[in-house]
UniProtKB/TrEMBL annotation:
Originating organism: Rhodococcus oryzae
Keyword set includes Transcription: yes
Coiled coil start-end: none
Lineage, broadest ranks: Bacteria, Bacillati, Actinomycetota, Actinomycetes, Mycobacteriales
Record PTM 4-aspartylphosphate, positions in chain: D55
Transcription among keywords: yes
Identification of the protein by name: Response regulator transcription factor
């Protein structure tokens, strides 16, 4: 079945360009568009897209607030944030709110399409290393843990080890190489980590690893 997408950006030309790129692929359908966060929340509720491609800097209601409302509504739509700057506190806020990842607006079209497919499938979002740069930049200003480490108590030693590697920006394949395990085994561990911690995806796991002090910027 086709992946359905809602485009959210306050610039009409940006939405037009994104729509042209996405609709060139048979497995992606653009269900609708929104020019601000409030409209995005309403459209997500009405259209129930698989993926919401969300700009973070918008008038009326920004992408962070919109992402928060979409995630807290309990709908199954995944939010993929787009931003102009790779070190953007708004993007970090959206990740903390529950976005499944973020892209730069100058991302090549093929990478954009790949990211949408990954998010729709519930897999890893674009480059975890970009997420790590964001976390290192902003959490690094205040390295003290903001969440109690006890939230990780249900994880086994192996799962904690996998989470540490995950939080440093490694893909499943790279973690498998580091730990001398199969990629399928790592994927199973990641799934168990998310289930035990009640997280939507690996991006939230990275955020939690930093917030609990399991890993620190630069580690």
């Amino acid at each position: 079945m086709a992946i359905t997408v809602l485009l959210v950006d306050d610039q009409e030309l940006m939405r037009m360009g994104l729509k042209m790129v996405l609709e060139a692929h048979e497995d992606i359908v653009v269900l609708g568009e929104a020019g601000d966060g409030a409209a995005a929340v309403n459209a997500t509720r009405d259209l129930k897209p698989d993926v919401v491609l969300m700009d973070v800097r918008m008038p009326i209601v920004d992408g962070v607030a919109a992402t928060t409302q979409i995630v807290e509504s309990g709908c199954s739509s995944k939010v993929l944030v787009m931003t102009t700057f790779d070190l953007d506190e708004h993007a970090l806020g959206a990740l903390r709110a529950g976005a499944s990842g973020f892209l730069l607006k100058d991302t090549p079209p093929e990478d954009l399409v790949s990211a949408i497919r990954s998010v729709a499938a519930g897999d890893a979002v674009v480059s975890p290393k970009v997420t790590r740069r964001l976390l290192s930049r902003f959490i690094g200003d205040d390295p003290a843990p903001t969440r109690t480490p006890e939230v990780l108590d249900d994880l086994t030693e192996r799962e904690l080890e996998v989470l540490r590697h995950l939080a440093t920006g490694l893909s499943n394949a790279e973690i498998a190489q580091q730990l001398y395990l199969s990629e399928a085994t790592i994927k199973t561990h990641v799934g168990k980590i998310l289930t035990k911690l009640g997280l939507r995806d690996r991006v939230q796991a990275v955020v939690l690893a930093y917030e609990t002090g399991l890993v620190t910027p630069g580690s």
